[in-house]
Amino acid sequence: MENISSSQRNGLSEWFRRRSSMLVDYNPAAGPYFTGRRPFLILLVLALIGTFAAGFLTYRHLILVSNTGGVPESALCRAQGNINCDAILMNDYATILGFVSSSALGLMGFVFVLWIVLNGLWNERMRKIAWTFLAIYFFAAIGFSWYYIYIMMFVVDYICTWCIVVHAVNFSSLAVVLVVAIKNKDNFLLKEISTPGERFYFVTLGIALALLSFAVATALEKMLVVEDMHVKYEELANDPAVIAAVLKSSPSYEIPVSPNDPVYGSPSAPHNLIFFSDFQCPICARTEGYLKKIVSVNQGVINLVYKNFPLSTECNSSVLGNLHPMACPAARAAYAAFLLAGSKGFWSYGDKLFESQKLLNKNPWLQFAQTLGFDTSRFERLLEPQSQAAKKIEEDVALGIKLKLNSTPQLFFKGKRIPENFRGPYLVEALEELAKAENPDDKDFRLKRP
């Protein structure tokens, strides 16, 4: 091992020695160091255009996700046909890892480019190292551009004009960088004339400015999102164009529905609204009541399919804490009612559970079964951990984990997850948009409002 390490070190040292021997001294009489000002001026213009475009997209993204009032259409990007900047900014691909705004990331990149270009203009000694950084940056930026161009063309079916401006700036800038680099390839062998101090401030301050711009935009967005969560989602949900765009571009899921699932409404209804719920969840109780009203006024058109996702560590390994400790036995009890009396028995028993959430810690399972006239001996056997009811809960929880659920209630319709901002009075609009997307010929499809 020592011989191999020594050989590697000797080879590396030899490479650096040969490289150093190829470097030549800079002769001021031969002209500007590395290149003149013109390429930097061209990149400055492109960077300013890119900064404006990315800045506008970042600003618009902040407005869309945080404005509690109405969000007026932007004069800089009016929705027309497939051209819809807002639809692009509000789809699932507008953030990286669900947190990092792609528009803020682009703004950070252009701030970094402006810093590099301005340094190259002001300080001739920094031009070679500046051009090296520009080449590295734009090669990376082109990768992002290709990805988002693909998303626009083949995934979301919407086009953002200012996004195209950003991508065009990236491609144009890379072309300029490559042309100048090839033309001045011999000048890359010039010895570095900038001082270590200049290089240090160039790199550290450039990175700091870029990160600061990104941090400010991201922190502002998250702060406004937390502050205005409730109202902003209601405003977005009131815009049918945004509803259609967001739902159309969201991921699709395959959620099986079988005769083993409790159904509210006609089992033969053509449209299934799938409801993942927890009987110890207060919001689930209110949501279920509203969903039943939608089904009741649209008999034979839509039904409600119940799936279990108790937020309890007893039967759900995906939850971190035992938020609802009685949710698992409550789910088994409700499904036992289904096995004994079908969907009608399930919903009657479920109503009892929701109405008596504060009493669930007293294990009222048999009492409720007796009140509803069930065979209590059979009912009690179905409450056991290895019963048919328990296995059904396991199946539902496994499906919920596969769908990456982490809370309740959760709604799915036509394979699409209904975001929380489309709940309440605007849920019906979301259901209509998804139904029409599945069957474009039925443009006049309407659901009655409860």
UniProtKB/TrEMBL annotation:
Give all residue intervals belonging to the Vitamin K epoxide reductase domain: 36-181
The record lists the membrane-crossing segments as 40-59, 96-117, 129-149, 155-180, 200-220
Origin: domain of life? Bacteria
UniProt GO cellular component terms: membrane
Matches recorded under SMART domains? VKc (SM00756)
UniProt GO MF annotations: isomerase activity; oxidoreductase activity; quinone binding
Instruction: Reply yes or no: does the keyword Membrane apply.
Output: yes
Q: Which PANTHER family match?
A: DISULFIDE BOND FORMATION PROTEIN D, GLUTATHIONE S-TRANSFERASE KAPPA
Q: Which Pfam families match?
A: Thioredoxin_4, VKOR
Q: Which key words are in the record? A: Disulfide bond, Isomerase, Membrane, Oxidoreductase, Quinone, Redox-active center, Signal, Transmembrane, Transmembrane helix
InterPro entries per UniProt: Thioredoxin-like_fold (IPR012336), Thioredoxin-like_sf (IPR036249), VKOR (IPR012932), VKOR_sf (IPR038354)
CDD domains according to UniProt: VKOR
Main localization of the protein described in the UniProt heading: membrane
In the UniProt record, does the keyword Signal occur?
Answer: yes
Q: What is this protein called?
A: Protein-disulfide isomerase
Give the location in the cell: Membrane
Q: Tell me the membrane topology, using the record's own terms.
A: Multi-pass membrane protein
Family statement: Belongs to the thioredoxin family. DsbA subfamily.
